[in-house]
Design goal:
By secondary structure, the protein is an alpha+beta fold. A hairpin with a 2-residue loop joins strand 5 and strand 6. The longest helix has 12 residues. The mean pLDDT is 96.
Length: 125
């Protein structure tokens, strides 16, 4: 499996509502910057950011539509639209992602998106 397919599988794993399984795609010291929020490092901190949104019954991610993927060696970039829904609020969030894959794990993950677009959903937390 190439790095672009690996990243696609990783992104789609977020809809499975199992962050422990999703973290298996990540290096233990992964650098994660979910802009515009502050960056974090490591599985525990990634989970602090994402568990309220995608783990277990909290999972609000309904669809992951990856529209474009570019890969050059260990660097993978994708453009995607994520559909999020919670408590009657649904948003479509355009995301540009940058991933570094080394030794079969994501070591760096940076997502760029607009906070105003997802603010109505975050208000339901």
């Amino acid at each position: 499996m190439g790095n672009s397919e690996f990243v696609t599988r990783f992104c789609n794993s977020l809809m499975d509502a199992d962050m422990a399984a999703t973290c298996r795609y990540l290096a233990p010291d992964v650098y994660y910057h979910n802009m515009p929020w502050a960056p974090v490092v490591g599985h525990a901190d990634v989970r602090k950011v994402l568990d309220p949104l995608v783990h277990g019954p909290n999972c609000a991610l309904r669809k992951m539509q990856i529209e474009h993927t570019l890969a050059d060696g260990e660097v993978v970039m994708n453009a995607r639209v994520e559909t999020w829904s919670r408590q009657g609020v649904t948003v479509e969030l355009p995301v540009a992602g940058l991933f570094i894959v080394r030794n079969g794990l994501v070591t760096r993950w940076i997502d760029y998106w607009d906070l105003a677009t997802i603010a109505p959903l975050l208000a339901t937390l």
